[in-house]
Amino acid sequence: MPNWVLNKVSLQGSEKQLQKFNEFVKSKESNFDFNNIIPIPEAELQIAQGFLVKYNNNPIREFIDDNFDSAVYMYTLERNPNASETFCKAVLRLVKQYINQDFSAFSMEGLWIRKHWGTKWEASTAEYVDDTLYIFKTAWSTPVPIYEALGKRFPEIDIKVEFADEDIGSNCGIITIRGTSITYKNLEISKKGQRFATDLWGWDD
Known about the structure:
Elements: E1 4-12, H1 15-25, H2 34-37, H3 42-56, H4 61-66, H5 68-79, H6 85-97, H7 108-117, E2 124-130, E3 133-139, H8 144-153, E4 158-165, E5 172-178, E6 181-186, H9 191-201
Antiparallel strand pairs: 1-3, 1-4, 2-3, 4-5, 5-6
């Protein structure tokens, strides 16, 4: 089981902007869906991982290396005959990015999520309090790339994130975002951080 990090996301902005924000992050699956914010390229990842599994077990890898880009394109079109040039290029980028990665512990999608969302999974128990407040938990870390993406998409909204690990006093702080302006305040390993985390979780000393 992971350490859970509690995230409290507070917003300030016009009623119209806040409504747009809510409509953007909400899905049938979650009140705060990371996949709405930074979508997982599932089809591209599946093909890229399939190619690498085949590549890593191929006795004639030297031939593939000499024609690497073409080999990726050919494999992609075998799996998806209607793939566009943009799709093929996306698969090639993923293949080159993860070519030396061991997939025994994590799938390519799992590795992609960790890198691009900054956490292991989707938001857990995402609570929509109102248009100005969301509360949810994430595994191991707060999803900084998600908040950065939201800041860029909604530059007129002030976003304040208070986060704290269930290991009280560690991995806690405050992130404030307006557009591309981001401020990080690290509170871990301090008495102030311990008090902050305890209050955020609603626990007694």
